[in-house]
Specification:
It is a single chain. By secondary structure, this protein is mainly alpha-helical. The chain has one domain. It contains 3 helices and no strands. Helix 1 (3-20) packs across helix 2. The longest helix has 30 residues, at 62-91. It is globular, with a radius of gyration of 14 Å. The N and C termini lie far apart (47 Å). The mean pLDDT is 78.
Length: 92
């Protein structure tokens, strides 16, 4: 896949992940895109390690989108765990 495909997948996967996990999350379009791209890489890596499959096949493959969205959800969850604890300590 080319860089443009990664950007599009990142933007859409990040937006879908934010829609599935509503709440206070970082940034705007650029941060959403970066979360989606990093989530795609994380999801692809986890698919290879856990299931032994190459889950990042191509732009129109369902496995690519599932891996990118799942990885983005994991990154959003980790962000909330790390930053949520930091914010609760400041206000306590």
């Amino acid at each position: 896949m080319g860089i443009i495909a990664w950007i599009i997948i990142g933007l859409l996967a990040g937006a879908i992940a934010k829609a599935l996990m509503p709440g206070k999350d970082p940034g705007g379009v650029i941060v959403t895109m970066l979360i989606g791209i990093a989530g795609g890489l994380l999801g692809g890596w986890l698919g290879k390690v856990v299931f032994g499959v190459d889950s990042i096949d191509g732009f129109f493959e369902l496995s690519t989108w599932i891996a990118a969205i799942a990885g983005s959800l994991i990154l959003l969850l980790l962000y909330r765990l790390l930053v949520g604890n930091r914010h609760s300590r400041r206000h306590a």
